[in-house]
Amino acid sequence: MSNPVPDTQPDPDEVLQHEETPMRMESVPVVVEGPIIARDAPSVAAAYFTEYVGTTPVQILGVDSRRRRAVISNVGGSAYFGNSQTGVDAGTNLRNSPALKIGDNQIFELRNIDELWVKAESGNVSVGVAVESWTR
Which of the residues 32, 55, 67, 89 has the least number of beta carbons within 10 Å of its own beta carbon? Predict the structure, then answer.
């Protein structure tokens, strides 16, 4: 007769699976002659959207390891931008806050994978977002 209770404790050998040692690779010396042109790799995907934001913090970008860059613009008034809800909320109260205050009709570029939160200084602002990604 079989045991009616499932075995939820995995065997240690099952958890710590053995992996083969990768093939040994050695570097090859290369001699470069003349000037070298260096260019960014092209982005393969993009998204564009507009978010209407009031005085309550709103997350407009989540953490994304595929994000190459995001271009952000705000219209209709000043706004606080930051990588956390509490940081953007603190932007109105603290002198050395973790939020960045961007004026009306300003554009800035973001080149990281962090979250992006925004809150209008007063009233409502329109935040335009253009995101480029490395892969689909």
Answer: 32
Q: Which domain holds residue 70?
A: 56-133
- Closest by CA to 130, choosing from 116, 88, 122, 121, is 116
pTM for this entry? 0.66
Instruction: Express each pLDDT in 26-62 by its tens digit.
Output: 888 888 888 877 777 777 888 899 999 999 999 999 9
- The candidate with the shortest Cα–Cα distance to 75, out of 57, 99, 93, 50, is 50
Is 63 within a domain? Answer: yes
129 inside domain: yes
In angstroms, the CA 126 to CA 124 distance is 7
